[in-house]
Write a structure and sequence with these properties.
The chain is 23% helix and 32% strand. The protein has 2 helices and 8 strands. The protein has helices spanning 49-66, 87-98; strands at 3-6, 24-27, 30-36, 39-40, 43-44, 74-81, 104-109, 118-125. Strands 1-2-3-8-6-7 form a 6-stranded mixed sheet, with helices on one face. The two termini are 14 Å apart.
Length: 129
Amino acid sequence: MSINRHGAQGNKGPGGQPLPFARAVEADGWLYVSGQVPMVDGQLVAGDIVTQSRQAILNLLAVLQVAGYEPQDVVRCGAWLDDPRDFQAFNNVFREYFGEHPPARSCVVSSMVVDCKVEIECVAYKKPA
């Protein structure tokens, strides 16, 4: 089995801090994408749940694209929300990106490690060539 780590070098968090994990790891057609928060260039994006959800999902999709996967390859997502009242708004944004090919998903309420409203991860699969 071959394992390919995407974004293990140069992965930066808040304030440009180096992060000790890969953005994604690929093994035999499976891609495990680390949790993505609403961050651009190491800075959290301010805004409501809609703004932050869009950015977190765009970050997730960017990791998928770099690894050669597409949204329809996603088989499962996990999402964490800071506030349970944001659930419906998050679902509406999620539907914008995954509506045609909805993956399995879990969504829980949790305190965040960084000061944001949402984090999302996924597992994708593409038959190896």
